[in-house]
Design brief:
Elements lengths: L5 E7 L14 E7 L7 E10 L22 E8 L10 E5 L11 E5 L3 E3 L6 H5 L2 H10 L8 E5 L4 H14 L4 E6 L13 E4 L8 H8 L5 E6 L3 H8 L2 E9 L9 E3 L2 E3 L1 E3 L2 E5 L6 H12 L7 E6 L3 H13 L5 E5 L2
Parallel strand pairs: 8-9, 8-11, 9-10, 11-12, 12-16, 17-18
Antiparallel strand pairs: 1-2, 3-4, 3-6, 3-18, 4-5, 5-7, 13-14, 15-16
Helix pairs in contact: 2-3
């Protein structure tokens, strides 16, 4: 197959914090050399990529290439491969490592260990919405036990919706999954929630009182927090002594601890607590794909941007930063 020597990409010159009322103007349509895979890497023609809005304000890793290509959730087609089990023409999806280039481009390279084949019957746009949300939820719900009571905060976001579904599988029919969210709460029971609380509709905003009154004993065994800050603090008060708190909310809480091997669990005030940042994993994505194929895991796309234009991509990031969407913002590239 004849390949071009260059490709179009959206790039970010310097990470920064944006005024949420304005489009992020530093995102620029650029022409770059076509990336060249090596070793166990594959070249993928990107069909769609999902936006992680707050990525624009994250500091770039020291090894990060410049100019930086954002958006690391991708779905596309393998163009060149020297690494089984993938071959040219395979439709795949991945969470690309954050210390490398993202997927807001016509092509990207990806190591085989971060890649999985698309779930059967799922298109590129839908598939691109999955990797970060599903892997984050999957890793947050590790260790759930049959019959436990789990509270999911931020349950109407992309990660939260995945967490509700994966938590239900973890605690089984005897377990309890409490989901607290905003816009889109009405669909959470269908995803496995036992009790749904729309914090926007609770008088005085005291959603904790609704949770206390809705679960036996007024406490939960595990908190899966997708919000951070005040939400994390309020949710933690609902966890029983000896229970567990897992958060992916940004910024990291004061008690978060990072060791040589990554983020570590800490013990504080009778609770086991952990903050973490998602790890890329093709193996876990394969498990996620099987759940999607079997109908046990539903995806959520909140907004589709048709085409990789500066105006469209800037608008997509701006809309994502405002929040309130029922799923991921996905840019359709090809």
């Amino acid at each position: 197959m004849s390949l071009p020597s260059t490709m179009n990409a959206i790039t970010l010159s310097t990470p920064q914090t944006y005024d949420l009322t304005n489009p992020p103007t530093s995102l620029t349509l650029t022409t770059l050399p076509l990336p060249t895979p090596s070793g166990s890497q594959l070249l993928i023609r990107i069909a769609a990529t999902a936006i992680t809005p707050y990525e624009l304000s994250w500091p770039a890793p020291p090894s990060s290439p410049t100019p930086r290509i954002p958006a690391h959730d991708v779905a596309g087609t393998v163009i060149s491969s020297a690494s089984p089990p993938f071959k040219e023409g395979d439709e795949v999806f991945s969470l690309l490592p954050y210390d490398g280039q993202g997927g807001m481009a016509e092509y990207a390279i990806c190591d085989v260990k971060f890649l999985a084949k698309l779930p059967k019957g799922v298109g590129f746009v839908e598939a691109a919405s999955v990797p970060r949300a599903a892997l984050t939820a999957w890793q947050a719900c590790v260790g759930l036990r049959e019959g436990e009571k789990v509270l999911v905060l931020g349950a109407t976001g992309a990660v939260g919706k995945m967490a509700v579904q994966i938590a239900r599988r973890g605690v089984g029919e005897r377990g309890v999954v409490v989901a607290v969210g905003g816009v889109g709460c009405e669909g959470l029971r269908g995803l496995g929630a036992s009790l749904v609380v729309n914090y926007k509709e609770v008088e005085g905003g005291r959603w904790e009182d609704v949770v206390k009154g809705g679960v036996e004993g007024g406490e939960v065994d595990v908190l899966v927090d997708c919000l951070g800050a005040e939400g994390l603090e309020r949710g933690t008060r609902l966890v029983r002594s000896g229970g567990r708190v897992v958060t992916v909310g940004s910024p990291p809480p004061r008690w978060a601890k990072k060791g040589e091997r990554g983020w570590e669990e800490v013990e504080e005030e009778g609770l086991r607590k952990k903050f973490f940042i998602v790890d890329e994993s093709g193996e876990q994505l394969e498990e996620v794909a099987r759940l999607i194929e079997s109908g046990h895991l539903k995806t959520s796309v909140g907004l589709v941007v048709d085409g990789m234009t500066e105006e469209g991509v800037r608008g997509g990031y701006s809309r994502g930063l405002k929040g309130g969407l029922s799923g991921s913002v996905v840019v359709k590239i090809a």
